[in-house]
Amino acid sequence: MFKINPDNFKKASFWTIILVYLVIVAGGVVRCTSSGMGCPDWPKCFGKWIPPTQISELPANYVEIYSKGGHLSVEFNVIKTWTEYINRLIGVAIGFAIFLTLIYSISYLKSKKSIFWLSFISFILVGFQGWLGSKVVSSNLLPFMVSIHMIVALIIVCLLLYSFSLTNILKIKVDRNLKFIFLITAFATLIQILLGTQVRQNIDVIAKSMNYENRNLWIENLGNIFVSHRLFAYIIVFLNVFLIYKCHKIGLNFIRNSLTVIIALEITSGLILTYFNFPSLFQPVHLVLGTMSFGTLFYYYTTFEEN
Ligand code: HEM
Fold first, then answer.
1. I need a surface site. Which of 31, 123, 131, 147 has the fewest CB within 10 A?
2. Is 276 exposed, middle or buried (0-12, 13-18, 19+ CB in 10 A)?
3. Helix (H), strand (E), coil (C) string for 261-292
4. In this structure, are residues 35 and 113 in contact, taking their beta carbons and an 8 Å threshold?
5. Which spans in the chain are helix H?
6. What's the pTM value of the predicted model, to 2 decimals?
7. Closest CA to ligand 1's atom 43
8. From ligand 1's centre to the CA of 287, what distance in Å?
9. 142: pLDDT confidence band, cut at 50, 70 and 90?
10. If we measure between CA atoms, which residue out of 98, 140, 142 comes closest to residue 121?
11. Which residue, by CA, sits nearest to atom 11 of ligand 1?
């Protein structure tokens, strides 16, 4: 029997946030290795809870069986199958972690009701996200569905970060305008992430049409959405530099350093993708840094108290 105490809530919600970020990385790896169809069914994988490691474990007519779900390219590839399966396992771990978070949040029902309700909504959303995941697979990874899946993940991150920050007794006192600019920058970053997912959708179409070869030509074929993503990056950089400067001036060195590192790495990974033939490793890197940038800005915003 576990004890319901506030410290347990902090631990559980912290680990849920880490797992949500891990699943974003895993999702990115699944996409850049084209492993999404590594498991053609859901929630089982090739009809099993623990997927096969060899083709001999599958029925001879497995292509026929699993093509019935409308999937055009059913083919067993052990690496792809297990990449997708690990992604799903992290999803299951999130299910357990958010359940514990909800249970532990009961300890705040009297003192800070909002913590319980935020945890409750996160819990429901995680369930919804699991259901959406099944729809993403059955839609054959329809780009629009993939983007919605991403937005829901970010909403969950925000709810968890917010409830986590509500447990902080000590708040950082800052000027009202500075707090507001943190919010604006987080919002602008969210827009940039959404533009990025559109770029990504185009990339997926182009890559497929080129048989996943000639990576150096993918960028050239991107349309206006990429131009917008690149231009919007200037606004994001400007806002971040402004915040970094302000934090430097008032001695918030940790915040200054974390913002600097994340934005510098995010821009560098975007530039590497664009000018160095689109190395696949940098796809999940760029994605996860973008979402980290958003999460960090949002978290700092919630921990600030107006002077
Ligand atoms: C300034 C902050 C930026 C943020 C927050 C950001 C965020 C994102 C996100 C979330 C994606 C979608 C990734 C995915 O769905 O897998 C993306 C895609 C992309 N971004 Fe950025 N980005 C930024 C700046 C840049 C810059 C400066 C460049 C290049 C000049 C760039 C180039 C790209 C490219 C090429 C893609 C497509 C990657 C893929 O298909 O995997 N980004 N961006």
1. 131
2. exposed
3. HHHHHHHHHHHHHHHCCCCCCHHHHHHHHHHH
4. no
5. 6-32, 62-67, 78-105, 113-138, 143-166, 176-209, 224-249, 253-275, 282-303
6. 0.89
7. 196
8. 7
9. confident
10. 98
11. 196
